[in-house]
Amino acid sequence: MHKTMAQLPYHYGVKVRIFPSTEQKRLIKRNSDASRFIYNEMNGLKRELFMLRQVKIPIMLVKQRIQTLEQRLKNPATGISNIHGWLNDPDLDSLMKANAIKNYRYAWKLFRQVHRSGTPVFHKRRSEQKYQTSCQYDSKLPVKNMLNGSVRLLDRKHIRLPKLGMLRFKGMPAKLFVCRENIRIGTTTISMDATGRYYVSMQLASEQPFVTVTNSKESNPVGIDLNTDNFLTDSNGNVVANPRYYRSIQSKLARAQRKLSRRALRAKKEQRPLRDSKNYQKQRAVVAAIHRKVANRRNNFLHLVSTILIKNHDLVVAEELQSKNMLRNHALAMSIADVGWRTLLRMLSYKAALYDRKFITINPRNTTQTCHDCGFVMGTDNTEKLTLSDRKWTCPQCGTQHIRDWNAANNILDKGLEKLATK
Q: Could you say which residues form the signal peptide (predicted)?
């Protein structure tokens, strides 16, 4: 019996750039619009049902409407297609419809579990396009892999997708292409970014690990302190400088955005929709390209740092940072958003599983204020707490001189080892 994607032990994700033809671009847009429409239609029904269930007065009209909505939500795929006949168009991928409904259900499931940011919102029409499909396999196939599903590789530079047919893409990573006969493809996302570049993202799963791990015999744990002055300081005293990618390009972006604003005002004065204004759309693409460049440079930097940390240490300990709360500090919001701490922690988490390493986070309370040598906490015994400007300090109890970030990284590592020992 074949295992499902979830039952396979190893998982991986890959995103490659594709180069569709004009007809394929039209099909991508059609499927993207249909996916957004189905999601919004389902979300509208669910929001109405959610609001009606809050009504405590037993009005017969409300009860009947609740029953009607519940009935429509039982079989949404056929119900929506019957009402909106254009969804039966042969250009549309049936698996796209199933994934749009699955995404809406997952969004409401998260809302019920978390209940923090309100009911799921409607997806707006944007310059970006995106829809999901699934890779299906014939049940009679003895082995399911990247070469025999509805989404499959034809060679290293070509891929076949449902409804779109053969597409040229930039190239599959060598480590994945070599193992293509042992890897299965799951959910596949076709997308276009704001600059008009098209991508395919694939969920992969396998019985064999995607990375060959060489476990060293010696234990080599490390604690890392993340800050804005320098990007990272580890417990060995190594410092990674903060590249500040957004700040380096901020003036160029500001000029481009002012030009975009002027073109928007002119289009509105001439009563032309922005979507049909060629000059506005050209400048919008310029602004989007600058944002993309910043994002790509930052992601490349974070991938390099996270991979080096995970490969060279069997245990990585970091602070559990609440970026959402930290961004409320308007003096530091731009610097905090620029460094991408949450993205780094997410990368460390999944790469630790990929390379068979351990990554844990600890409560950051007093990691900066505590002396690593004697355990004295600044702010107690009539002492003042360290401020952001205090990069070096001397412990008033034992007299040890500390470099602020190195001391914090050592405290983080100690807390991580204690947490690991109590498990």
A: none
CB 316 within 8 A of CB 224: yes
Residues forming the active site: 225, 319, 405
Asked, for residue 133, whether it belongs to a domain, the answer is yes
pTM of the model: 0.86
Q: Is residue 212 part of a domain?
A: no
Structure tokens at 128: 């970006």
Cα separation of 316 and 224, whole Å?
7
Nearest Cα neighbor of 310 from 254, 263, 357, 376 is: 357
Instruction: Provide the domain limits for residue 402.
Output: 221-422
Is 5 within the bounds of a domain? no
Domain match, 251 and 304 both = yes
35 and 152 co-located in one domain: no
The tokens of 203 are what?
A: 């969920």
Query: Does residue 90 contact residue 63 with C-beta atoms inside 8 Å?
Result: no
Domain presence at residue 416: yes
Q: Answer yes or no: do 266 and 308 share one domain.
A: yes
Cβ contacts of residue 180 below 8 Å, gap of 6+? 145, 146, 147, 153, 172
| Helices 60-74 and 22-52: angle between axes, nearest 10 degrees | 150
Question: Would you say 279 and 272 are in contact if contact means Cβ atoms under 8 Å apart?
Answer: no
Do 423 and 248 contact (CB within 8 A), yes or no? no
Tell me the per-residue pLDDT of 337-389, one tens digit each, with 9 for 90 and over: 778 888 999 999 999 988 889 999 998 888 888 998 888 888 888 888 888 88
Q: Looking at the structure, do residues 247 and 355 belong to the same domain, yes or no?
A: yes
Please say which residue of 80, 114, 148 terminates a domain: 114
Residues 143 and 179 in one domain: yes
191 lies in the same domain as 245: no
Q: Which residue, 172, 206, 240, sits at the end of a domain?
A: 206
Q: What is the pLDDT of residues 224-253, one digit of tens each?
A: 998 878 889 999 989 999 899 998 999 999
